[in-house]
Fold this sequence. Notes:
Helices cover 52% and strands 14% of the residues of chain A. With 251 residues, chain A is α/β, with parallel strands linked by helices.
Amino acid sequence: MPTASPKRVQLFVTCIIDALFPDVGEAAVRLLEHAGVEVDFPEAQTCCGQPGYNGGFRKEARRLALHFLDVFERSADPIVTPSGSCAAMIVHGYLDLFRDDPPNRARAKALAARTFELSQFLLDELRLAPDQVAGASPFRGRVAYHPSCHLLRGLGVRQAPERLLAAVPGVELRPLPQAAECCGFGGLFAVKYGDLSAAMLDNKLAGVRASDAETLVSADMSCLLHLQGGLRRDGSTVRCLHLAQVLAPAE
Amino acid sequence: MTTDPPRTAGQSHGAFKARIATALRNPILQVALDRNHERRVAGRDLAFAALPAAEATRDRGRAIRLETLSHLDCYLERFAASVERNGGRVHWAADAAEAQQIILDLVQAAAGRRPPGRTTPLLVAKSKSMMSEEIELNHALEAEGIRVVETDLGEFIVQLRGEPPAHLITPAVHLRREEVSALFAERFGMAPTLDVAHMTALARAELRRVFFSADVGISGVNFGVAETGTLALITNEGNGRLCTTVPPVHIALMGLERLVPTLADLEVMLRLLPRSATAQKITSYVSLLSGPRRAFEPDGPEELHVVLVDNGRARMLGGALAEALLCIRCGACLNVCPVFTEIGGHAYGSPYGGPIGSVVSAGLFGSDFSELANASTLCGACRDICPVRIDIPTMLLVVRGQHVAAGLPPAWLRLGLRAWEWVMAQPGRYRLAQRAAALATGLLGRGNWVRRLPPPLNAWTDRRDFPAFAARPFRDRWKIRAAGKAKSD
Lengths: 251, 489
């Protein structure tokens, strides 16, 4: 798509989306291209290292963080990722991981300054109007938005996703009770403390039911992996979609 | 001395999980914790919304605590000198055993102040002190035949039930009025009632007798003021004031980090602590105690002893968990925590539960308590609410790192994480692993979702389906797309 000032980004698709939800990655690409952004996908990318970092396996996480730095330092373009959680890992987690390693900490800091979560990049960085981004979406339906903890509190992105959703002509946005409360995913936590994670999931799903939404939207597939898994087990018809899938124009 | 098993006995992953399971199945606890969460968090938010320059006050509070900790040796010296100047005595305890012994000796010495002929056991009236829980003081005193009565209403209730407090600020947070009513009916023959005022009046009458016959009053300390030697006690029931002024001997018990430099600094803390803890602008009682009774004063203790306890704090101050010593024990992070709201305080098996407690427990008591830090989703609500902005999630991650360094995670996790690192370090291996996972979940699943996974992943599928791995991952689709583009160009 020709634009006055072509903008290029490196897409960090995240391992969850790559391996489990490739449709989401494609929707993110469509959305970015529709917004006039040229997308590159560095193929050597793997995982940002968050599972190890959150599990306390710092040495292992550091190795993957170094791999990430190697891959994404090859270009000076901004790094955009459709995940609040992985973005927060790169922006905050790496600085902590390399706290005793000043040279790599400096590399991480430089990369963090040009790393953005998708909705944050479109609205806060490119300063596009929400309807420029989302106006062409064919989506129709009642939607509730779950703000993932790492996007909301980790990165402080409080409004961008809902402003974008509100700009989709066919979206009827429903308030989600206790929206800011954690869904209980927490990575390894969901396996190590499965029943506790499930109790938190039950709270979140009670809110989803009360919202009367048909679609639950979030900017993190890790939360949605957990939420959709629970909804399916309950026999619910509510489906989970990534923000990009709701905003993107038709294929 | 205490005959209880050491506190570390129940800290394995399995024991912790069992306590969590018990908590999740306790319907009374679930109701009580939900109410606590709703009431306390909403109240705290309102209280801070009404505080002018709330965020700047939090910054100031953090700066004061940082200043205190970065020159703690100086402030401790100044504080001790000020207390002695005021006529109090300062005692230093390196660990729990030393603190127990110092207090035991002081209480036994108080026998000398008794009216002649009194033969009842020595009686201690206690106002709330988390340090006394940390050093398991009541057990130590009771083992020597001393009677100890908790006079904070919540503490009074949990003591009658033979339980430790379930929360830093609200010890009986795990109970509803129904349980208290049943307890009082059983212990005091109270006629059935759910009238809180009636139950409180009954406790008050019981406690009144204790205040006026106690040989010793023991209290905690919210803040010690270095420049003046003032002990600040922040309470709502007045029991703190009675414990510290009526008995002839007052023993104040505090962790050695619990200082602020000046009275002006204390004023900042007084704006933060009640708002964070109980959504109050100020508590019903703020007691500033500056020494024992002087000749011209009508009341107050004959003796004032301040016991400063280290018990791991100095070591913690020099390590990666030092930031957790900024904590002013308001309990806001417990109230907002989605995990605490599911399991309550007792499940942690430490006097310090919840987010900050998981850090403090590991910091003070060592790696036996590091498993607690794994029971968190790192959602960050604790960091947002902390009045002195402790980065609790990052501290939890430090504890997890120590847990791994000590070789404590189960073998499946250690192996799994190493395998994950090996796979992810190299894109070719990663792609291969994707294919294998797609094949495996394709075999296990019906349609696109798997209903049952083998252990330990069954902990996921016990409650949730798991999606099958994509037969064609994003990176493959990208290649196809790139090839198509190249053709059309």
